[in-house]
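Troubleshooting entry. The earlier prediction with 5-O-phosphono-beta-D-ribofuranosylamine gave an output that would not parse, so I re-checked the input for stray whitespace and re-submitted. Clean input:
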Amino acid sequence: MKKLKIAVLVSGSGSNLQVMIDAMQAGRLPIEIVGVISNVADAYAVVRANNAGVRTAVLSHVPNGKKMGIRTFEKHALELLDEWSPDLVVLAGFMRVLSAEFIQNVPCAMINLHPSLLPNYKGLDTHERVLKSGDTLHGCSIHVVTAELDAGQVLTQAVLDVAQGDTPESLRLRVQKLEHALVPFTLELIAKGVLELDETPISSNLPLPIKLYF
Ligand code: GRF
């Protein structure tokens, strides 16, 4: 099977990137990570990528140490993506909001991992907000990136029951475990053509979103 070429954008610890690296190296998924872009120089995700011998670009600071604006970041990121020519861009803990122009110019489909059951709880602090509202279900979603934040077609979700005594931190850890299952599950569906992201509307052999219950 032809491997799905993936570029990954990160800002943080990169635990989801690690899941992708492990699956690629073990041959569990038909993917090839063609490059990782971080907007944070000391993100642990960069260490993980380097350890795995995956091409890495840090676009957080210009050489003179001044912060890069989002436009400059996007210009360089687009150049890299054009060069790497991925089939799919995965935002895995990428914490900068991207412009509509960038999203439009990315040379392939782009998906994002979000720690809530979208369309509920777009944006930040999702675990706190779930606890405050008293919801009994929580989880994570993978959706297509569009210009509107966290609003593109939801492809897959992993769902858990909120337990009595859950805190934002316990939910963060429990949702992270779900993410580590949902990311490879979703990439497999895309790699195998069960989800075809290049079509509008997205075509799927299964009703969307596809849900995993834990
Ligand atoms: C995940 O919780 C993801 O949902 C959010 O950022 C976190 C990334 O974690 N967008 P990691 O960097 O993959 O460990």
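This one parsed fine. The first helix runs from residue 15 to 25.
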